[in-house]
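Hey, can you fold this one?
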Amino acid sequence: MELIVNGVSKQLDVRTLHELIAHYELLGKPIVAEVDGLILRNDQWTETVMRPGMRIELVHFVGGG
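Sure. Predicted structure:
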């Protein structure tokens, strides 16, 4: 299905936000997930069902110095 991920239209075969985050290999990393303007907690990822046209922003943090 078509999803807008970080501003880019993508064709992805995922059912939930959890699957989407796993697709991008971000599970277990400190990230913030926003879906259609709402920031979702980690415990909401598995119950958040993806629908065509959803806008998802995935922000992950990297350390450095």
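The two ends are 39 Å apart (CA to CA). Let me know if you want another pass with a different chain boundary.
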